[in-house]
Amino acid sequence: MSRIQKRFEWLQSKSEKALVAFITAGDPDLATTQELFSVIEESGADIIELGVPFSDPLADGPVIQAASQRSLKSGTTLKKIIQLVSDIRKSSQLPIVLMTSFNPVFVYGQEAFVKDAVEAGVDGVIIPDLPPEEAGEFDALAKTRNLDMIHLLAPTSTPDRIEMVGAKSRGFIYYVSLTGVTGTRDSLAPGVEEKVTRIKQATALPVLIGFGISGPEQAKAASECSDGVIVGSAIVRMIEETPDPAERKEKLKVFVRSVKQSLQARK
Amino acid sequence: MSTPTLPDRSGHFGEFGGKFVIETLMPALQELEKLYNEARNDPEFQKQLKFYLEHYVGRPSPLYFAENLTRQLGGAKIYLKREDLNHTGAHKINNTIGSALLTQRMGKKRVIAETGAGQHGVATATAAALFDLECDVFMGEEDIRRQALNVFRMKLLGARVIPVSSGTRTLKDATSEAIRNWITTVEDTHYIIGSVVGPHPFPMIVRDFQRIIGDETKQQIQEAEGRLPDALVACVGGGSNSMGLFYPFAEDKEVKMIGVEAAGHGIETGKHGASLGHGAVGILHGMKSYLLFDADGQITEAHSISAGLDYPGVGAEHSHFKDSKRAEYASITDQEALEGFKLLSRSEGIIPALESSHAIAQVAKVAPKMKKSEVVVICLSGRGDKDVNQVADFLGEEV
Question: What share of chain B is helix, strand, coil (3-state, %, to 5)?
């Protein structure tokens, strides 16, 4: 059983919802990412999603775009991120998912990437610009090595696509809560509950809600109908706005805990 | 070769093209494809398109025998396909009129576009004014500086010009930002993409709206010469004017096709825009195609004196033409393009766009080596008024 699957079973046994915490790897450098990984893990996150920086991330809003730029400036590459995962694996068994645009993976070589990522201890990948229609080759490679390919669904997804994506995705389904790019929003987009309910009818996989989740209140609201949430920009912004390392760790700890607690409260 | 049937049902031109976009856009692309196929086969839509192309754009554009230039170069007979004479001064409007009509058909009220030189932005703003659509144009800050006149034209036409300050602040980033905006507004907005790039079905739609360049040329050259030309030459940024000219000739094997990319400061300096000649296959802006990127897959900056060629990618069908050897691709430096700019201005009294000047410069290289009985057609994709200030700066002249 994969680490991701195990984690969801464990969460279910405790009647908790999942918190996936996103940080851009290498923002502002990889040593910081390794430190923050531990802080986030200790604060109760269930899965950590490491963003691979790209020069032209089309699905990202300004906060994560800027993080990508900072990371690239410090010399982060996909190869170094895979190395970082293998370093982290020496002391952690938390599920790790990479989120990346397709070009860095394509240029790395799909087969080599899958092999290296899995050997380093990566459990899943999210490649927003690689929908199932284009993912045939990658998906076949990932399957043979039990690397979960996590696909996205969106408010615009039609019933046909919900069926198709539901069947192709592995690990969980990433439901993009709003028609837009990553970034925090003041409130949860309308219609989320209806759509997620539909998706859950079409697939047995856990369905997690991401894009626009800014804190505990929205996380709690989103988790009512889903299996958990993905929080990205809110964390990345906190890292950006808190240059002092000690203060940054403390703030992050408090924030991640507060979001996780909102997912533990029983209905 | 089976070009006329491409893209295939999944939107690929051989290995290239496809739909590399986030799920949010997939349904819109599928809907667009369906709607476009209906429109394409609807005589009423075609009639409407023909009406606006004739009476508003001013088509057909002339195929002009450049006698002075021919004499001066002393080789092949040179014809100019005069897209510079279209309303708004470039070929871009062929696509924006068609796409605005599609927007109306979809019942959407707003369009967005990206622009480099500003020609596509102006053409989109024009079509939006004509068909009463709200219009936002994304433009890199660097290009806004280089193309101030076109920025003002767009504003006069009622469009909003949205400065893009991310990345290299040029066409690449304007395209990324337009796609991000489309991800956010897809339910009521149509994206009028400016070239044969992006996810399927855009490369097909833009090609189909631009093929009128080649369709007319085929007929006009038959009337003038009683035969097909020996070579077609056109500049390639994203590649829409060249694809428009080339596509109808794809099956005419005797017609050589030469696309001309920007060599910028010189290929050896690394500061150029020659994705086909000196790039590699990758994924950007929803398509698999030849691109410029570094060893880690990060897209690199393109360089060209002409904003319209300053793009680190190229249309997927051109990548297919390259690999299948149906077309060949050359490159011309900034300096050579300036010489082409001056050459056509002096010899024919036609000031070409800096983009088109690359094609002129290429012909200046190859025409003298060709026989006098041979025939070359250059796509004069746009007029050079927009570039006059920049060229004066470059030549160190006060305006």
Answer: 50, 20, 30
Are B39 and B45 contacting, i.e. CB atoms less than 8 angstroms apart?
A: yes
Half-sphere exposure of B27 (CA within 13 A, CB side): 18
Contact B125, B142 (CB under 8 A): no
CA distance A83 to B158: 52
Q: Which residues of A sit within 8 Å Cβ distance of B?
A: 54-56, 58-61, 65, 72, 77-79, 101-108, 128-131, 133-134, 151-158, 161, 165, 176, 179-181
Cα A240 to Cα B78: distance, rounded to the nearest angstrom: 59
Q: Give me the count of residues in chain A.
A: 267
- A158, closest residue in chain B (CA to CA): B27
CA distances from B297 to A81, A132, B30 (A): 14, 22, 28
pLDDT at A254 over 90: yes
CB contact under 8 Å between B166 and A65, yes or no, is yes
Q: How many residues does chain B have?
A: 399
What confidence tens digit (pLDDT) does each residue in B44-92 have?
999 999 999 999 999 999 999 999 999 999 999 999 999 999 999 999 9
A150 interaction partners in chain B (CB closer than 8 Å): none
* Distance (Å, whole) CA B381 – CA B389: 19
For the stretch B130-148, pLDDT in tens is 999 999 999 999 889 878 8
Nearest 5 degrees, angle CA B37-CA B43-CA B45? 65
The residue of chain A nearest to residue B186, with distances taken between CA atoms, is A179
**What is the nearest CA distance from A61 to chain B, expressed in angstroms?**
8
Q: Which of B166, B187, B283 sits opposite A102 (nearest CB)?
A: B283
Choosing from A27, A46, A49, A123, the catalytic residue is: A49
Q: In what order do the strands lie in the sheet with A124-126?
A: A148-149, A124-126, A96-99, A47-51, A18-24, A228-231, A207-210, A173-176, A152-153
Q: In sequence order, what DSSP letters do the residues of A215-237 get, joined into one string? A: SHHHHHHHHTTSSEEEE-HHHHH
φ/ψ (deg, to 5) at B236: -130, 115
**Calpha distance A61→B109 (Å, rounded):** 24
How many beta carbons lie within 10 A of that of residue A31, not counting itself? 11
Domains in chain A: ranges and CATH? 17-262 (3.20.20.70)
